Amino acid sequence: MTDINLVKLSSNLKGEITIPGDKSISHRSIIFGSIAEGQTIVENFLTGEDCLSTIYCFKLLGVKIDVVDDKIHINGKGISSLLEPHEVLDVGNSGTTLRLMSGLLSAQNFHTVFTGDDSIKKRPMKRVVTPLKMMGARILGRNNGDNTPISIEGTELSGIRYEMPIASAQVKSAIILAGIQANGNTEILEEYKTRDHTERMLKAFGGNITITENSILVKKSSKLVGQSVYVPGDISSAAFFMVAATLVKDSRVKLLKVGMNPTRTGIIDVLENMGAKISYENVFEEAFEPFSDIVVESGNLIASELDGSIIPRLIDEIPIIALAATQAIGTTIIKGAEELKVKETNRIDTVVTQLKLLGANIEATSDGMVITGPTQLKGNVVDSNGDHRIGMMLVVASLIAEGTTTIKNIDAINVSYPNFFKHLEKLTH
Ligand code: S3P
After folding, report:
1. For residues 104 and 173, what is the distance between their CA atoms, to the nearest angstrom?
2. Which of 16, 155, 287, 374 is the most buried (most CB within 10 A)?
């Protein structure tokens, strides 16, 4: 694991960068490309470690996946021709790979075992195992089926009607991927809408799915057809530069081709509400997902309150929103975000501990955090704790913190944004 020393930025952030592909959509492009018939070509695929884990797992299921001129070519096997893997499927740090593939493989006629890194081993699987078992799945795992290593004996499934007890796109997607192979209808009801990339992609690949205001109905979809997919830039990655440009004086950055799916744009709503200067150019409505260029200029922020249906729309951006809140006038309160406790780290703990080390006025609550600003941050020794989003948030903090900030375990950022430092360098020259 590598450490890095960073000093407060003496210049501003200027210029434009093309934000790397969306992590959630990249995973799904490999999944649907693999189970569709014919070729799927994916452009702007995110080659971060998490998405490479999904490719690795599908290769072990017999799918031919190649990189040709920066594009991913998938020779889809169809939904019934995946092969039993000879190896344990190691998902590394990727919860999305683990949860979504568990749904898919529960209905295949072979046996699979999943494992992952130390963080994955702590992440709850009951949330996925419970509805899949209701459909007839045969799954065993450590801690009564709540943790990896987990083993799935594929079998015939039946549809269910499931009211989501938590807001989770990974759980929803696992049920959808089981539902397209199950007998009868599978209906999923969500209190708060979570990211809908699985639904959009299933529809575009020819799957049998009907979406209403708060319910999703899926039927058996024996034949999906390969597609060309352009993956928009990841708004969760863009978020670090949106906040950086807002906080570093006299900045103006343009972030190209950022995904603008409304289930993901909570970060924009919050930053605009706090007073950030954001504008849009070149809005595209593509077959799968909308995207746009985003221009952000520096500005002063005021505190905000976050709760309810906005939380799933920005769940991965809470670490960087917390940093923004340390620079906003007033008290920012984040509630209803207990899901943060079961991310790559317990992000209530890691955000609060690390920002406190930099001098922030921030306290943890049972379901979020309370942050009072503005505070001049001061460099110190901090730690990503192996969490990519904590690592990048701390880099942005170092740009405005006085003196030197040392960030331990910085290589965690390769999970979702391997070019992060290259992009930062491009904007600081
Ligand atoms: C994801 C869903 C979210 C998010 C994660 C990616 C997905 O997790 O935090 O980074 O691709 O479906 P949950 O479904 O656990 O909320």
Report:
1. 9
2. 374
Tell whether 216 and 334 lie within a shared domain: no
Same structural domain, 317 and 215:
no
How confident is the model at residue 122, as a pLDDT?
96
| Residue 196, ligand 1, Cβ within 6 A | no
Kindly report which listed range (5-14, 85-94, 282-291, 378-387) carries the lowest average pLDDT score.
282-291
What dihedral do alpha carbons 146, 149, 154, 160 form, nearest 10°?
20
Pocket lining: 332 vs ligand 1, CB cutoff 6 Å: no
The catalytic residue positions are: 316
CA dist 110 and 135 (Å) reads: 17
- Quote the ligand 1 centre to 185 CA distance (angstroms): 24
Whole-model pTM over 0.85: yes
Q: Which atom of ligand 1 is nearest to the CA of 312?
A: 16
Is residue 136 domain-shared with residue 221, that is, in the same domain?
yes
Atom of ligand 1 nearest to the CA of 166: 16
The residue segments making up the domain with residue 107 are 23-230
Q: How far is the CA of 173 from the centre of ligand 1 (A)?
A: 10
Domain limit, last residue, from 169, 198, 230: 230
| Residues 315-341: tens digit of each pLDDT | 999 999 999 999 999 999 999 999 999
Give the Å distance between the CA of 141 and the centre of ligand 1.
Answer: 21
Give yes or no for residue 338 CB within 6 A of ligand 1: no
Best of 98, 170, 191 for a ligand 1 pocket test (most atoms within 8 Å of beta carbon): 170
**Proportion of the chain above pLDDT 90, given as a percent:** 96
Give the mean model confidence (pLDDT) for residues 65-80: 93
Q: Ligand 1 centre and the CA of 15: distance in Å?
A: 30
54 C-beta closer than 6 A to ligand 1: no
From 230, 262, 288, the end of a domain falls on: 230
Note the pLDDT tens digit of each residue in 130-179: 999 999 999 999 999 999 999 999 999 999 999 999 999 999 999 999 99
